[in-house]
Amino acid sequence: MRRAIRFVALLAGAAVMSAPLLAAPMGFKDSWMVMADLSPNWREGFLNYAFTARDAAGPSLLYMRSDDKTLTREVAEISYTRLLKRWNLPHAQSNVWFIGGAGAVRGNDFGGERAIVTPGIQVDYETTRFYVMGLARLYRARGLNHDYAATRIGFSFYEADYDEVQPWLVVEARRTRGLSDKLEITPMLRLIHSRYFIEAGVNNSRQFRFNIMYTY
């Protein structure tokens, strides 16, 4: 698995050096997307390729740690994203996504690797000034249940043209079963552009959080 982690890290680095941003888990047809979500207890990265306007797939890596720092999980998988439904409204857009994968998980409380599946659903609604999202995803392996749920709400400070950077305030609440004893709440400043977004904030456990997404 460590070889796989190094391999995906190299792929992700190459994509960042070469990568239009969508507030979505995949880009347009024939595009590549790289994403990283980094904090002490949660470090996730993926690289996917949109082989149709509704489907994308690629390698994904995730490190999870319990709040008390006693349990760790490392997941390496091939992820698949599917746009299930889209509503194009006069001044807004809403989407339903399937996000899932299959791979292997390692932990510091058991030996070897176990097969893991990670199906999930994301629902979002967005205008140029407002964003709300809900995500539920299962992380299931033999003897393991680390189901994950998150919700986000955000607003932009002002309107911006397509080629301008637009600042947003985003607040996220999330929790992982079996690893988190409390709801993690993180207010973040988001800078969004046609080709990327960057987010940074501090959660209610005083841990720094940094996210980046880039599409090309």
> Unreliable stretches, pLDDT < 50, 5 or more residues?
3-22
Q: What distance lies between the first and last C-alpha atoms, to the nearest angstrom?
A: 28 Å
Order of helices and strands: HEEEEEEEEEEEEEEE
Shape: globular
Q: Biggest sheet: strands, sense, closure?
A: 12 strands, antiparallel, barrel
Question: Roughly what percent helix?
Answer: under 10%
Tell me the β content.
over 45%
Mean pLDDT: 89
Strand order of the largest sheet: 1-2-3-4-5-7-8-11-12-13-14-15
Task: Please tell me about this protein's structure.
The protein is mostly beta strands and 216 residues long. Helix content is 8%, strand content 60%. It contains 1 helix and 15 strands. It has a 12-stranded antiparallel barrel. It is globular. The N terminus is likely disordered.
